[in-house]
Amino acid sequence: MDKKTTPTAHPIPQRAGAARTALLPPASGMVGKKQISPMSRIHNISGTAALLAALALTITSTTPAQEVYNGLAAVVNGNPVTQSEVRELVRAQEFLLRRKYPAGGDSYDKEVAKLRDSALDDLIDRELILSDFQSKGLAMKDQHVNITLDQEILERTKGDRGEFLKQLAEAGISLKKYKKILRDRLIVSAMRANETRDVAPPTPAERDAFFKKNSDLFREKSFVKLSTITIAKRMQDPSITEASQRKLIEEIRRRILKGANFASEAKTYSQDSTSEQGGDRGWIDADKSPLNGTVTNAAFALKSGQVSGIIEDRNAFYLLKADQVNKGKLKPRAEIEDELNQRVIQMKRREANDAWMEKLRSDSRIKRY
Asked: CB 140: neighbour CB atoms within 10 A?
């Protein structure tokens, strides 16, 4: 969606002021009335190992000249977000999705599209924050980037700079580019922390409201008596496709919602070891569930007697019925006050961040392609 007047020229613009090296404007170190201390915010930045693992999956034969014409994904205040940046950001996750859906299919395509949309949103937010940083006349001193780089070399290769540079080269990334990544991450981390650190302490009313809305976070163990119907996505018969299996479980769910017996449908159609028992899995412990996390989380979100929507993982589609839910007892309020207070603070910081980002978006020129 366009906001204000948006550029339409396709030559990729360069970020203004990218080479500035002063830490902050004249000695005050202030943004408005708030001081930024970038090095105190480094704990929010992911480690080198994860970053290099993702970068290792981005090695291609793309040359710098080719990358200029790889296509724009968005332009934010005149600064480009390229299609290659989106691909690089999600390449590691797409690799995992290919393992999850080795045969591809509609589910794979939908998840990839969702992943790329989310990645583009994140990259646009990054550009908004970097633009805000520059508009305030701020910059990051090289010494902060170098200290962070030295810490990562120590963690990654026990201080062996040569080995670290070798790993960067194997990942297809120069030291200059890696330091720019670190610089941008330091800036984004510092700016986010600066905008969200001064939230007001939770009031008793705010704590009470959060506790009432999220009481399940403060319970002892919960159990659910669960029944399931499992429909495999792929069968040995090549005429049975993932799409036809999805259609089958959709029809089963429609019949159940109209009054068909869940156990009878499970005995007839379910393709797991509980089908002969009408899908009855007995009591499931939230902390020791034999089911995967996706199915377990969905099960404990149900109310007694409720039938779930269609749930899926890489292998199958599922329908769940919570025959009975026994929620654990609420922990005494005195035992959870510290945790409750921290959760409310986290919520208020997320709200402050969301409000800040919304203001940046409304004040910016954003063009998505």
From this structure: 21
* Positions of E strands within 272-333: 280-285, 311-312, 316-326
> pLDDT per residue over 127-172, tens digit each?
999 999 999 999 889 999 999 999 999 999 999 999 999 999 988 8
Collapsing DSSP to helix, strand or coil, 303 comes out as coil
For residue 98, the domain's CATH number is 1.10.4030.10
Rounded to whole angstroms, how far apart are CA atoms 134 and 41?
Answer: 18
Query: Per the structure block, which two tokens stand in for 34?
Result: 């708030």
Angle between helices 262-269 and 242-257 (to 10 degrees): 160
- Find the domain containing 184 and state its range: 30-202+344-368
Together in a domain, 64 and 196:
yes
In a domain, 252, yes or no: yes
Instruction: Compute the mean pLDDT over every residue in the chain, rounded to the nearest whole number.
Output: 81
Task: Report d(CA 359, CA 369) in Å as an integer.
Answer: 22
355 shares its domain with 293: no
Task: Report how far apart, in Å, the C-alpha atoms of 240 and of each of 106, 205, 246, 266, 313 are.
Answer: 15, 56, 10, 19, 18
Cβ–Cβ < 8 Å for 236, 346: no
| Domain-located, residue 337 | no
Helix/strand/coil percent split, the chain, to 5:
55, 15, 35
Strand 30-31 with 34-35, pairing: antiparallel
Instruction: Judge if pTM exceeds 0.70.
Output: no
